[in-house]
Amino acid sequence: MRKNFVLAIYDDEEKLLAAAFKAREKKYKFYDIYTPFPVHGLDDAMDIKRSILPYVTFVMGLIGLIVAISTQIWMSAIDWPINVGGKPFISLPAFVPISFELTVFFAAHMTVGAFLFMNKLFPGKKPVIFDSAQTCHKFIVVHEKDAVDFDEVSKFYTDNGALEVTENSREMES
Amino acid sequence: MSDAHVSKLRTPLVTEDRTYEQISADILDSLESKPSKNWLIGFSISALFMTIGFIVIGYQVGTGIGVWGLNKTVGWSWDITNFVFWVGIGHAGTLISAVLLIFRQKWRTGINRAAEAMTIFAVACAGLYPLIHAGRPWLLYWVFPYPNTRGPLWVNFRSPLLWDVVAISTYLSVSLVFWYMGLLPDLATIRDRTKSKFRKYVYGVMSFGWDGSNRTWHHFEVLCLILAGLATPLVLSVHTIVSMDFATSVIPGWHTTIFPPYFVAGAIFSGFAMVLTLLILTRKVLNWENYVTMGHIEAMCKVIILTGTMVGLAYGTEFFIAWYSGNEYEQYAFINRATGPYWWAYWSMISCNVISPQLLWFKKLRTNLVFVFILSIFVNIGMWFERFVIITTSLHRDYLPSSWAMYSPTWVEIWTFIGTFGLFFTLYFLFIRLLPGIAVAEVKSVYKFARKNKK
User: Which residues contact B44 (CB under 8 A, 6 or more apart)?
Assistant: First the structure.
């Protein structure tokens, strides 16, 4: 689908942050903001909901732990119990290291998987690049053109330290 | 962050004034320009030693591991020493990237990428050893509990050696993923800066379509913190489990409860020494003095003083407990370490690990790059001797004097060890050539820290 955008381009994150908060007060709806590095505070300006990744980590860690403990018990005490030096078949203290490692293994890899899935990042994905410097030294505030009045936001961002305000039209994947 | 109060006590993390564009250019120059002569020479020498190493590995796998210098009494020596040596080195990277992230130490941004890369390469070198030790490396998958046609017969979950397999595999895979996620924004920077179509394609695929959207950054920062939180206990668990390979046995000199913290401190100690060795050279050759500053070098020296002192304390505690236990085998094992036939190894260890790092208390010495470089190599040598002393001297005097023996390595073991250094440096040379050696985005995010003239 083809979409039209209004871009305000900045070269300094402090000016950008101040402008983003003012834009929030004016109720301009953000499409997104592209920055070369994380700028703390933009999350609040954009009203981004807290990431659900910690819950993914907790649940996956728990699954890892349950899988590890039940696998070890099943293999060493139920499926084929072997007497090793007279130790109990279910030697829970000895199962701790592997249970811990598998908890971390599941939690870490599944969280990374969830992160990639939620942000639709995968090898071969086409990035949304408005300006080739957006991953290097430029900060770009993007509004959908239908959502804002171009002349108004153009004046607003120029007054609030933007280098330039332009229009852009591009095919979006979703 | 940038609006923090600027105090005299805080110094900027990037010494000279730069624009964000210049920061990208400074750091990425190492991979955007043609390879230098020094790089080509260094890479060729490393690759040569790596090749020799692999030929020697091929020889011992083809002939059998009887080509090592081991005997009936000394059943573990250089093989395990070198394995533990490399695993230990592989601890500093995760410590820098994970523990220092949790403690909000902003200076980590200058060195974390190279240190994490070093971690992964060191663990890869370590991983090579169990593969060779298996004797038949193509059967190594037997260590995993998979449904097999022998029953199925499961592995013994009470064995520390199995814990080791799981711990090291988990550590390698989690460090690799942590490192790669951190690379995504920087790979996108390279993709958007390059003019070459081929590079744009390759870095485009590798950067997973990263575009710097703030929604992505939000999840990204949460992800980094979670991975750091998971990697911190993980890194402590790995060397703890390595130490249990020894501590759960009944050999005098190995059977001690102090091993886990003692090994972890030693691992961080040797890892930081290796980071210093590599970065002092890299910052000079690639003109990174602005990003890996004297402040970074000093901070790492201080970690070395701390961990070196902890290691020294552990050596003392071991001796005290051997005496206090009243167990004459335990006492003999320690007296024999210091005064027996391997006394030279013991005293090399003490002088390199306990005495030499104390010199870093002097500011004059820890800001002298040549001194710190030489000292970091001393620490590496000392930590190698520590593992040799623990492993070989505890074994070579058996309970029956008729079984007493000595050990010396054969050419096969020596060249395998040199080969792993070749592998390590080959990977490191490729890394600084193909990937951003400093976390570009992270350095930009701390650029304004403690900086008075912000533009």
Answer: none
Is residue A132 less than 8 Å (CB to CB) from chain B? Answer: yes
B148: contact with A, CB 8 A cutoff = no
B166, B223, B442 ranked by CB distance to A112: nearest: B223
Which A residues in the span 56-85 are in contact with B, Cβ-Cβ below 8 Å? Answer: 57, 71-72, 75-76, 79-80, 82, 84
Exposure of B214 in the CB half-sphere (CA atoms within 13 A): 26
SS3 of A67-128? HHHHHHHHHHHHHCCCCCCCCCCCCHHHHHHHHHHHHHHHHHHHHHHHHHHHCCCCCCCCCC
Token digits of residue B82: 């070198």
- Residue A133's SS3 state is helix
Residue type, A36: P
Of B151, B157, B181, the CB nearest to A94: B157
Q: Is the CB of B232 inside 8 Å of chain A's CB atoms? A: no
Where do we find the tokens 């004797």? B135
Q: Are strands A164-171 and A32-34 parallel, antiparallel or unpaired?
A: unpaired
Quote the ipTM score. Answer: 0.92
Decide if A71 and B219 are in contact by the 8 Å CB cutoff: no
Relative to beta strand A139-144, strand A164-171 is unpaired
CA of B168 to nearest chain A CA: how many angstroms apart? 9
User: pLDDT tens digit string along B77-98?
Assistant: 999 999 999 999 988 888 888 8
Shortest distance, CA B189 to any CA of chain A (angstroms):
5
Q: Which amino acid is at A85?
A: G
Minimum Cα–Cα distance from A73: chain B residue: B157
Task: Provide the 3-class DSSP secondary structure of residue A3.
Answer: strand
Q: What is the pLDDT of residues B142-194, one digit of tens each?
A: 888 888 888 888 998 999 999 999 999 999 999 999 999 999 999 999 998 88
Q: What residues of chain B score a pLDDT lower than 70?
A: 1-7, 452-455
Centroid of chain to Cα B294: 21
Least CB-CB distance to A137: which of B2, B20, B215? B20
Q: Which residues of A touch B444 (CB under 8 A)?
A: 36-37
Q: Does B40 touch chain A (CB under 8 A)?
A: no
Question: To which H or E segment does residue A153 belong?
Answer: helix A150-159
